[in-house]
Amino acid sequence: MMIHLKSARELAIMRDAGKIVAECHALIAESIKPGITTLALDRLIEKKIRKNGAKPSFKGHHGFPYTICVAQNDVICHGFPTDTPLKNGDIVTIDIGAHYRGYHGDSAWTYAIGQISPQIRKLMKVCKKALYKGIAKAKAGYTTGDIGHTIQSYAEGLGLGVVRDFVGHGVGQVLWEEPKIPHFGEPGSGTLIQNGMTLAIEPMITLGDWRAKIDSDGWTARTVDGSICVQYEHTVAVTKNGPKILTTL
Which residues participate in substrate binding (predicted)? Predict the structure, then answer.
């Protein structure tokens, strides 16, 4: 397994790539509302990424045809944008990647459209907290299993499902690098974390069953029981001063 530890120069470029992604999420946050289509958001974000001198990371990645991944309601990940307008009560995760000066930034965020139930509001809060609990373990000396165990025990302790079929990953010159970062697992298992690693931590948490099924498009993954799924993701650098989030303003 080849793990690429990043130099200070590489981390500075990745911080710039991450900032572009964070600016895209800020644009989504102010644009997403009932009546807008995710296809319109896709075009908006592609324009924004290219204006920053970057390229969309996902477009063409293993043949994926769009700039953003859209996970609406029971979709877990890798869904396509559509021309169906968003409506009040929808839950939408938008995953964005930007490829800048040879390096990727990767971050997903869940957005509530209009009024949503307290149960789903809580699910979003728990998933976001699970992400930050996982990030806190992204320190030299811990393992990928420590990150996963922290996320799993917190979310499952509250009766929620933790998706197993899709995991976090290293990120750098390649969008999906080693190591894999499951959001479940045993403490002390997996890969030892070292300074210089850059990791995309991205828990996907469901209100019901954690298992996934794939649509006929070969991409869209959704929950087997139709339960709502939410996701939050940041790209994080492991440094001697602890974890540093790269995909934030």
Answer: 78
106 a known binding residue?
Answer: yes
* Cβ-Cβ contacts under 8 Å for 117 (sequence gap 6 or more): none
Q: Does the annotation list 202 as a binding residue?
A: yes
3-class secondary-structure state, position 118: helix
User: Residue 191: how many CB atoms within 10 A of its CB?
Assistant: 18
Is 99 annotated to bind ligand?
Answer: no
pLDDT at 1: 77
Q: Side-chain half-sphere of 112: how many Cα atoms within 13 Å?
A: 13
Q: Which residue ranges make up each domain of the chain?
A: 8-245
Sign of CA dihedral 26, 246, 171, 190: negative
Asked if pLDDT for residue 234 goes beyond 90, the answer is yes
Nearest alpha-carbon partner for 109 in 241, 234, 249: 234
> In this predicted model, what pLDDT tens digit does every residue of 177-205 receive, in sequence order?
999 999 999 999 999 999 999 999 999 99
CB 123 within 8 A of CB 230: yes
* Cβ within 8 Å of residue 27, ≥6 positions away: 44, 45, 48
25-78 tens-digit pLDDT: 999 999 999 999 999 999 999 999 999 999 999 999 999 999 999 999 999 999
Q: Is 234 annotated as a binding residue?
A: no
User: Is the pTM of the predicted complex or chain greater than 0.85?
Assistant: yes
**Separation between Cα atoms, residue 96 and residue 81, nearest integer Å:** 12
In CATH, what number does 8-245 get?
3.90.230.10
- Write down the H helix ranges in 52-117: none
78 annotated among ligand-binding-site residues:
yes
